[in-house]
């Protein structure tokens, strides 16, 4: 599968991720009679996915669960991938202005969410940024990373804007040659779909991960919590700066510290502000969001990263978003989490400074 989420690190199924997984059982605790930890995973969305769950005597094994998960991931790829020309959304993207196309309900669901996030961010977050991503060198049709001139930027911006989309019955329509990019929310959507399917199979304790998006419910076989390590935004190595217990929430981290290019001493991140058409330039290195929906955590983490450390913080407070900010400060970072995040993770809300001499930018 080729659908990639550009603003997350890719990690293995077990071990520390961008929003890392820690503390996985290797088997059942002797006290947990009749249960054991089952795990499986594989490639997806240009990266990987993993599922760990506590299997009890009356619950299905991996041979029954894994095909269900893979079917969901394959469906997401067919509907939403911008990295295959025959997906539903890429066939829509290839249409000219004043066109409509019948769409499956999941695609329309994500378009509606994109409109909501675009409106509440005053247009800075937008699903139609693919022409800009391609122009700067970060998109599926990119040839090379570049700093576009004013004319190129103005031309691409005419094809950006959620106001150019509308839904008529089960059709998605556009009045300009816009192109929709679901890379900031598709993985979170997939995690929610997998989570719902696993619950429908009677499994009550599990952790689902796809391309770094996570959701955990219940406990491990020994009764201990699922533990998630939040990674420092470093270029040189992966170090957890905070570990949280997770139960009933999705977690997403968006950052600008891995996907960028340097030109004439200037650092250009892949995270674009749809209003300016240019990469965001601010001190916010990464944002982690906790939310009952992995889909919402996915979209909101990107939105807050685009807004930056001040506007993003105010948005999180106004909309009651549980958020954890890592802000550049010289050669180190200032870590700041809001009360909603600390109440869920058991931390404290006092900003702390983390030294990091090895970090670029």
Give the SSE map.
Blueprint: E1 19-22, E2 35-44, E3 47-56, H1 62-80, H2 88-93, E4 99-102, H3 105-120, H4 130-136, H5 150-157, E5 165-168, E6 171-174, H6 186-200, E7 206-210, E8 213-217, E9 226-231, E10 240-246, E11 249-255, E12 260-263, E13 266-269, E14 272-273, E15 278-279, E16 284-291, H7 294-318, E17 322-329, E18 332-337, H8 339-345, E19 352-355
Helix pairs in contact: 1-6, 6-7
Question: How does this structure look, described?
Answer:
With 361 residues, the protein is α+β, with helices and mostly antiparallel strands. The protein has a domain at 85-174: T-fold (Orthogonal Bundle). 29% of the residues lie in helices and 29% in strands. The chain has helices at 62-80, 88-93, 105-120, 130-136, 150-157, 186-200, 294-318, 339-345, and strands spanning 19-22, 35-44, 47-56, 99-102, 165-168, 171-174, 206-210, 213-217, 226-231, 240-246, 249-255, 260-263, 266-269, 272-273, 278-279, 284-291, 322-329, 332-337, 352-355. The strands form five sheets. The protein has a nine-stranded antiparallel sheet with strand order 2-3-7-8-11-16-17-18-19. Strand 14 and strand 15 form a beta hairpin. The longest helix is centred in the last third of the chain and has 25 residues, at 294-318. The relative contact order is 0.15. Residues 1-31 and 354-361 have low confidence and may be disordered.
């Amino acid at each position: 599968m080729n659908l990639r989420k550009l603003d997350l690190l890719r990690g293995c199924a077990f071990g520390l991720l961008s929003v890392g997984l820690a503390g996985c059982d290797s088997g059942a605790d002797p006290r947990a009679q009749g249960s054991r930890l089952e795990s499986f995973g594989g490639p997806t969305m240009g990266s990987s996915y993993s599922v760990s769950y506590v299997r009890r005597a009356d619950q299905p094994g991996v041979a029954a669960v894994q095909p269900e998960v893979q079917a969901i991931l394959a469906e997401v790829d067919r509907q939403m991938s911008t990295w295959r020309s025959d997906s539903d959304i890429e066939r829509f993207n290839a249409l000219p202005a004043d066109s409509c196309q019948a769409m499956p309900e999941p695609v329309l669901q994500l378009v509606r969410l994109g409109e909501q996030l675009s409106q509440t961010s005053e247009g800075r977050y937008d699903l139609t940024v693919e022409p800009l991503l391609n122009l700067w060198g970060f998109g599926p049709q990119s040839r090379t990373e570049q700093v576009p001139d004013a004319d190129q930027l103005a031309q691409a911006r005419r094809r950006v804007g959620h106001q150019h989309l509308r839904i008529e019955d089960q059709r998605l329509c556009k009045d300009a040659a816009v192109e929709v990019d679901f890379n900031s929310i598709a993985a979170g959507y997939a995690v929610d779909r997998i989570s719902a399917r696993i619950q429908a199979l009677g499994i009550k304790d599990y952790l689902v991960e796809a391309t770094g998006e996570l959701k955990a419910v219940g406990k491990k076989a020994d009764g201990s919590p699922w533990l998630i390590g939040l990674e420092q935004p470093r270029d040189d190595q992966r170090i957890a700066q905070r570990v949280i217990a997770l139960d009933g929430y999705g977690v997403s981290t968006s950052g600008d510290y891995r996907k960028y290019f340097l030109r004439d001493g200037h650092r250009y991140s892949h995270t674009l502000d749809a209003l300016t058409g240019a990469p965001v330039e601010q001190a916010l290195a990464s944002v982690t969001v906790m939310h009952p929906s992995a889909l919402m955590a996915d979209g909101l983490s990107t939105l807050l990263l685009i807004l930056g450390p001040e506007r993003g913080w105010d948005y999180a407070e106004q909309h009651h978003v549980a958020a954890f900010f890592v802000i550049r400060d010289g050669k180190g970072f200032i870590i700041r989490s809001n009360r909603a995040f600390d109440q869920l993770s058991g931390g404290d809300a006092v900003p702390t400074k983390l030294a990091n001499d090895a970090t670029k930018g």
